[in-house]
């Protein structure tokens, strides 16, 4: 059973955690609606708690009623001008994910399902602050599972 955990606080350099860190998810679902920066289209995003080991998964609802999933992993990042976009080889594009991903990372949320009804997440004020406020309001829950290692991106060649 998940337990409610306080939101992470910055630690002083040199201080070690008393116990091993655990994976975390949201304490409750939150929904936000706004317009995409590049498409100008209205999008509704529903961010839902997920089980340990799920990771961050975007689920895009398509106009025909189907949905497509893409995990927030570097392997699925595709080049797009002025935004971060994710796409599996067989799936549709999900873009402008960077502010939500930054906010989830800042609050140490490892697991969440992000449902979106458009190609692009809302831009709001152009920062991660609206996402941070929504996460703070939803709360954070520790899960009884140790953190999973993140796959590393290949090293890029230097100049």
Structural features, described:
A hairpin with a 6-residue loop joins strand 3 and strand 4. The chain has a 5-stranded mixed β-sheet, covered by helices on one side. A 3-stranded antiparallel β-sheet has the order 1-11-2. The protein has a 3-stranded antiparallel β-sheet with strand order 7-8-9, with no helix packed on it. The longest helix is centred in the last third of the chain and has 10 residues, at 129-138. Helix 1 (98-106) crosses helix 2 (129-138). The protein is globular and about 45 Å long. It has helices at 98-106, 129-138, and strands at 3-5, 24-26, 30-35, 42-49, 56-61, 67-71, 77-78, 85-86, 94-95, 112-116, 140-142. The chain is an alpha+beta fold.
Q: What's the arrangement of secondary structure elements?
A:
Blueprint: E1 3-5, E2 24-26, E3 30-35, E4 42-49, E5 56-61, E6 67-71, E7 77-78, E8 85-86, E9 94-95, H1 98-106, E10 112-116, H2 129-138, E11 140-142
Parallel strand pairs: 5-10
Antiparallel strand pairs: 1-11, 2-11, 3-4, 4-10, 5-6, 7-8, 8-9
Helix pairs in contact: 1-2
Element-level helix/strand string: EEEEEEEEEHEHE
**Helix content bin:** 10-25%
> What gap, in angstroms, lies between the N and C termini?
50 Å
Count of runs of 4 or more consecutive helical residues: 2
Largest sheet: 5 strands, mixed
The helix-and-strand class reads alpha+beta
Shape: globular
Strand content of the residues, in percent?
A: 25-35%
